[in-house]
């Protein structure tokens, strides 16, 4: 075989390989590889709701102790991370110290999946948070859960921020 024949056999795969590597772009980050990072700053007021339905003697500091940042979940999961468990321990302590306080836990998901699936996943997320708070000594009748599924996204451009459980705390003293 002549040297020219070897070039015809090796040149097309070589050009293809070079062409593909030359056209490579940064891979698009998929949901399964998205790293969920907990924000280091407190949640904005829109994510945490604290209402005082009792007398006005309740201090801002006491209500602030009841405020909790959202709990974040990984894709297709209702498992609590160690950070989430720590946050729930602080919330449970504040709730145990204020027996009149009530909390609603709302479960949320990103837009991936069907509406039915997302509502069920949001419910599982809210339920696991409720179960954990009960294990930490908060009376079950003080915790209400609901699921919004994908209906109330926190950030349309950051799906990992939508996979969360949020808290609304009411205080009636």
Record keyword descriptors for this entry.
173 residues, alpha/beta, 60s Ribosomal Protein L30, Chain: A, elongated
| Largest sheet report | 5 strands, mixed
In round numbers, the mean pLDDT is 75
Give the C-level CATH assignment: Alpha Beta
Number of strands: 5
Rg, alpha carbons: 24 Å
Given the helix and strand composition, which structural class is it? alpha/beta
Task: Determine the CATH superfamily.
Answer: OmpA-like domain
Give the amount of beta strand, in percent.
15-25%
Domains (count): 1
By CATH, the architecture is named: 2-Layer Sandwich
- Helix count, DSSP H or I runs of 4 or more residues: 4
**Overall geometry:** elongated
Order of helices and strands: HEHEHEHEE
| CATH topology tier name | 60s Ribosomal Protein L30, Chain: A
Helicity, as a percent range = 25-40%
- Terminal residue distance: 94 Å
């Amino acid at each position: 075989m002549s040297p020219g024949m070897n070039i015809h056999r090796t040149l097309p795969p070589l050009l293809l390989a070079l062409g593909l590597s030359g056209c490579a772009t940064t891979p698009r980050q998929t949901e399964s590889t998205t790293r969920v990072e907990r924000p280091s700053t407190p949640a904005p007021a829109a994510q945490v709701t604290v209402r005082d339905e009792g007398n006005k003697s309740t201090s801002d500091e006491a209500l602030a102790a009841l405020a909790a940042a959202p709990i974040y979940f990984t894709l297709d999961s209702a498992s609590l991370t160690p950070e989430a468990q720590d946050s729930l321990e602080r919330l449970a302590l504040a709730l145990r110290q204020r027996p009149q306080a009530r909390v609603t836990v709302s479960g949320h998901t990103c837009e991936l999946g069907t509406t039915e699936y997302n509502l069920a996943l949001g419910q599982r997320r809210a339920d696991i948070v409720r179960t954990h708070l009960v294990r930490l000594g908060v009376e079950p009748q003080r915790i209400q859960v609901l699921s919004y599924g994908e209906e109330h996204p926190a950030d349309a451009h950051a799906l990992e921020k939508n996979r969360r459980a949020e808290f609304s705390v009411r205080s009636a003293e």
